[in-house]
Description:
- By secondary structure, the protein is an all-alpha fold.
- It is built from eight helices and no strands.
- Helix 2 (38-53) packs across helix 4 (72-96).
- The radius of gyration is 20 Å and the shape is globular.
- The N and C termini lie far apart (52 Å).
Amino acid sequence: MKNIFNMEGPFISFLSKATDLVVLNLLYMICSIPVITIGASTTALYYVTLRMSRNEEGYIIKDFFRSFKENFGQATVIWLILLCIGSVIGGEFFLINNMEGTLAFAVECIVFLSILLFAFEMLYVFPVLSRFENTVKNTMKNALFISILQIPKTLLMLVFSCFPIVLVIVSLRWLPLFVALGFSVTSYTNACWMDKIFKKFEPEEPEEEKDS
């Protein structure tokens, strides 16, 4: 029993991480309320959870707002672009409900592919922005490229990302848990996968020269 309450033991470590995730979830929701800031909030969320996945977490609140501030410009531009793209895809989805015949099937296939690629982009673009320095264009292109290259893991992360939302839709009794941990736990779980994926695209650090 004594070891359970050891400050460096697994139980205290679990409680500490759980508390960090609750704080992070609340931060994310509060900073996303203006809607236009969702891109910067999501980038900051993944910046922190990617650090947590590598056991490099520092000060949750400080790290969140540092990333929020540093990436606000690019993240907001990307978010607005994605909103426009999403609106176009949504309009296409509405139109196919009023179409019939072979043409309707062809359009349905195109719209389904568009939705899938859009979901891929949404899943990766803000984590990529939080991890790599690049232009808006290259960040969006690289995010889509990585998502397609890692498609099995991408599909698994998409399913997991949708799962908490589905739970709340099925029963509102899950809403308090979602408010406490929904976004941060999803982000942290995805970050554990993404960290390994991103390492494949990072330049290798030069080895230190050995003493002769």
